Amino acid sequence: MRLVIAVTGASGALYAQRLLSFLETGDHEVHVVVSDCARQVAREELEKGGLAIPPRFSVHGQRSLEAPFLSGSNPFSAMVIIPCSMGTAGRIAHGVSEGAIGRAADVFLKERRALVLVPRETPWNLIHARNMVTLIEAGAVVIPACPSFYGKPQSVLALVDTVVARVLDHLQIPHDLAVRWKEKKP
User: Fold this and answer.
1) Is the pLDDT of residue 185 over 60?
2) pLDDT tens, position by position, 123-148
3) What is the 3-state secondary structure (H, E, C) of the chain?
4) Largest CA distance in the chain
5) In whole angstroms, what is the distance from residue 177 CA to residue 85 CA?
């Protein structure tokens, strides 16, 4: 699977880190774009002082025009924006494709490819809600970073993994990160 993982400046860098760590164990071609604000947030939130991007993943700058996923002529399977700031969501919803993240999201929508957004911010105002509706109507999948508790997670990482598991489900990537409803623990 050819994937684009974008990380924006919303709080929740741990969601991105857990997804990147899981994907490292698979046989996927992964391209990563991290916004400047996301780098700053990750330095504040993660123990290692920033995102640990697996060395085999391709990393592209937010201002890059060279990334292969920035054109619809280059087929990719899916794009995940995790966490997705409300500013990023709003720009995508309104076709403002500045920078590599916005341009890539625009390409994935126009090409009818899987685009998954994981907003973490709360509460939402009416503009946020309308932007999410616009994105869903355009074909994106919105998975708010709302962990589940029915599996009785015992750590912050286990809580985070309940959200990452839902992202992987929508990418159709098998995993055993979290307990599914009415199933026994893995």
Assistant:
1) yes
2) 999 999 999 999 999 999 999 999 99
3) CEEEEEECCCCCHHHHHHHHHHHHCCCCEEEEEECHHHHHHHHHHCCCCCCCCCCCCEEECCCCCCCHHHCCCCCCCEEEEEEECHHHHHHHHCCCCCHHHHHHHHHHHHCCCEEEEEECCCCCCHHHHHHHHHHHHHCCEECCCCCCCCCCCCCHHHHHHHHHHHHHHHHCCCCCCCCCCCCCCC
4) 46
5) 24
Instruction: Look up the pTM and report it.
Output: 0.96
Nearest to 80 by CA among 64, 57, 56, 104: 104
How far is Cα 13 from Cα 42, in angstroms, rounded to an integer? 5
What are the tens digits of pLDDT across the range 14-63?
Answer: 999 999 999 999 999 999 999 999 999 999 999 888 999 999 999 999 99
Range 2-146 has CATH code 3.40.50.720: no
State yes or no: cis peptide before 83, omega within 30 of 0.
yes
